[in-house]
Please model this.
Amino acid sequence: MCACENDVNEVRELGRKKPNIEEGKNIDYYLSSNGKMRAHLTAPLLLRIQTDSGRKSELPNTLHVDFYNDSMKVESQLSALYGRYMENENKVFLRDSVVAFNTKGDTLFCKEMYWDQNLQKFYTDKRVVLSKGYGSTYLVGIKGMTCTQDMTQVTLFEMQPGSYFTAHNMDSTATTATTPALAITPTTAAPVKPAK
Model:
């Protein structure tokens, strides 16, 4: 009499569903709202992964987004080394060297941030540095920020003491800044917790 023996781990592996992965290269995606183009996303690689829990899209090798105003002119831009699109929430999680800037020379630097496409806002609960006017003024939000997509309204959470200063201008003497040209609201309120 003879019998065969199966490896338990091999049998379990056969029963597991493997995720279905679609791969797209040289992505060139346009986002519109109410018949108007709002954003243009480019990325070298897009992975769409279908799992038992749902579908997710990842941009693992950098991404860049141009945001447009009603006149179809670029008003702000965004770049990051990694992005994950949450289709059910219409949000994008960005991490690693996240930089957003507008045409007025205001720039945000942070390690991770969310982009809410419905609200057209950026937010994070991590440390963020805001450079205004091509680097003439710097502000640091220790516990994050929220801001509009065009970066005209920025709320920093728990500003770092002494982080607000104006650098010397080569053409004139420096002045102490009292009111930012950009609408900035420092606050000590608790920041909005990002969705996971």
About this structure: Residues 19-187 form a domain with the lipopolysaccharide transport protein A fold fold (CATH 2.60.450.10). The chain has one helix and 15 strands.
